[in-house]
Amino acid sequence: MIIQTNIPLIENLLQSYIGYIGKDFTAYLNHCFRVFNFCAAFLDGKDVDKDKIAIAAAFHDLGIWTNNTFDYLKPSQDLAKENLNSINKFEWIDEVESMISNHHKIRKYHSNNIVESFRKADWTDISLGHLKFGLPKSFVRETLLTFPNTGFHKKLTVLTVNWTLKHPFNPLPMMKL
């Protein structure tokens, strides 16, 4: 497994949103790179367009910043759909929206391999590599070192606490069984 360090599609997509992401830009960019690499590793050898993974990675949490909400799945899906429409990739919309919608699903996603791989990739990163789903420990560790956290998990902790204080009966709106 080779770590891809140059993923211009993710960088270019996120540059358009730097005004929203602000000081969290590097933290989010690195998270997207880690998720992309983990997802690509889960799909190793499968005939999948990696641009699809890159687009899903770039947009999957972006609604946090563009809509200033922790209930960000729908806003993130809408941004991805808008992008896919603009580049005439209409046939990718359902799958990319599903990747975004289900990336915090707790149970396995059975209907689509790329969606399940993306789900596992995000969980691998969010768990700081404690959940590997069969990825080699050395690959996970090297990916985490290649793209440092730079405060991403701290940001998630702050968002979780602030959201929970305001919405105690819906503390994690992005989670699905």
Topology:
Elements: H1 8-15, H2 18-21, H3 25-42, H4 50-59, H5 63-66, H6 73-86, H7 93-101, H8 113-126, H9 137-146, H10 152-166
Structure write-up:
- The protein has ten helices and no strands.
- α7 runs parallel beside α8 (113-126).
- The chain has one domain (8-166): Orthogonal Bundle (Hypothetical protein af1432), CATH 1.10.3210.
- The protein has helices at residues 8-15, 18-21, 25-42, 50-59, 63-66, 73-86, 93-101, 113-126, 137-146, 152-166.
- The mean pLDDT is 91.
- Helix content is 60%, strand content 0%.
- With 177 residues, it is mostly helical.
List keywords for this structure.
10 helices, Hypothetical protein af1432, 60% helix, mainly alpha, 177 residues
In short:
The chain is mainly alpha-helical.
Named at the architecture level, the CATH assignment is: Orthogonal Bundle
For the termini, the CA-CA separation is: 30 Å
Order of helices and strands: HHHHHHHHHH
Number of domains: 1
Category from helices, strands and their pairing: mainly alpha
The shape, in one word, is globular
Helical content stands at 55-70%
**Average pLDDT, to the nearest integer?**
91
Give the number of DSSP strands.
0
CATH topology: Hypothetical protein af1432
Low-confidence stretches: none
**Number of discrete helical segments:** 10
Please write the CATH class name: Mainly Alpha
Rg over CA atoms, rounded to whole Å, is 15 Å
Largest pleated sheet: none
Query: Which percent band covers the strand fraction?
Result: under 5%
